[in-house]
Amino acid sequence: MSGREVEGKWHVYPEMAAAGLWTTPRDLARVVLEMQAALAGRDTRVLTIDAARHMLRPRFETAPGEGMGLGFGVQQRGGSGYFVHSGSNQGFRATLIGSMEGGRGAVVMVNSDQGARLGMQLLMTIATEYEWPGYAQTSLRRGTIDDADATRIAGRHRLPSGEIVNIRRDGDTIEVLDLTSGWQRLYPVAGGTLARTDRATQYRLTTEGLTVIDNPSSPKPAELAATRIASEEPPSAVELLAEGRIEDAKRAFREQFAADPKPFAQAMLTRRGYNYLANRRPAEGLALLELSTEFHPTSATAWDDLAEARFLTGDTKGMIAAYETLLQYLDADASVTPEQKDKVRRNAEKRIRMMADERR
After folding, report:
1. Are 52 and 35 in contact (CB under 8 A)?
2. Residue 328 in contact with residue 345, Cβ under 8 Å?
């Protein structure tokens, strides 16, 4: 994450599923073609049409218009369906995407912890050049926004979902707070609209407040009206964390958990924590994973997730402590099957021995 070459150039991880796949963009492109052939009812080497459809049926929603199937994320963009998958190990980032119809797709691999954004820009460039439905973007022409409108658009705004859009002025720059990657610059375009360059989202100032536009170049862009939040309302825990105010965020999360623990499921905290790690914000990611063990202290899975994150961030001592705590709770954790317990125990004990040997 520091920009230096990974010692040894790459790691060999003990996990065979999450980190054990060694492949190339060409071979992953063959996976996309196999899925597309099965979905079209053509002969394939591995999949039937029923198997492909079963894999791409969303089991749960991860974001508006997005869900998780078996092995792939599933997206609906501009009325077109896509299946996606991304991956990361230390020093490497990869993204795969394929359309469910029309034979569109691409695979991008980057040998850098900081390559996720570059990979996404490459994918968006491909989508624009080949006019993928729902992905293709028209070129943005820089516009202007007068000082009064720039002042009015700054502030915190709440969407109908409860999500908060936080926009600020910093001199001549206008920025929006991304809940994973922090403050991102906005650029004025036509019609009093501000656009992001890292994703297809725009923000338009209206007389009523703020309108957030997703996929503005699609035939039916999603437009959501946000209402301005009173200045005296304190920032939420997720806003504090996104701004990097980690200790303030942890206090706010604890207060919210004490009032209502339901929104703080262990799986949700893990997912958000690893999103931060993937976006090169290890302190924020570890904060969420540590809170997960605090809120779910007898969950072997929570301790396993924290141990893995500490391993990835180079905290050997903290990793060993987390694995040792995991082993204390593993047998009593009814949410883990006996088969899973054996695998988790072997992995924890192997990691502890390996790290202990390296420290000698």
Report:
1. yes
2. no
Nearest to 14 by CA among 336, 348, 306: 348
What are the angstrom distances between the C-alpha of 39 and each of 43, 75, 99, 113? 10, 16, 10, 34
d(CA 6, CA 111): 10
Looking at residue 218, its pLDDT comes to 58
Least confident of 55-59, 131-135, 137-141: 137-141
d(CA 354, CA 193): 54
What the block records as the tokens of 58 is 């969303």
Cβ neighbours of residue 13 under 8 Å, at least 6 residues apart? Answer: 19, 20, 89
Say how far apart CA 37 and CA 315 lie, in whole Å.
Answer: 45
Alpha-carbon 3 to chain mean position: 21
Looking at the chain, which runs of residues are DSSP E strands?
Answer: 60-63, 66-68, 73-77, 80-89, 92-99, 105-110, 155-158, 164-170, 173-178, 182-189, 193-195, 201-205, 210-214, 222-228
Contact 67, 58 (CB under 8 A): yes
Tell me how far apart the alpha carbons of residues 254 and 312 are, in angstroms, rounded to a whole number.
Answer: 26
Please indicate whether residue 19 or residue 287 has the higher confidence score (pLDDT).
287
What number of helices (H) and strands (E) belong to the chain? Answer: 11, 14
Where residue 141 falls among pLDDT bands split at 50, 70, 90?
low
Q: What is the pLDDT of residues 210-266, one digit of tens each?
A: 888 886 665 567 788 998 998 899 999 999 999 999 999 999 999 999 999 998 999
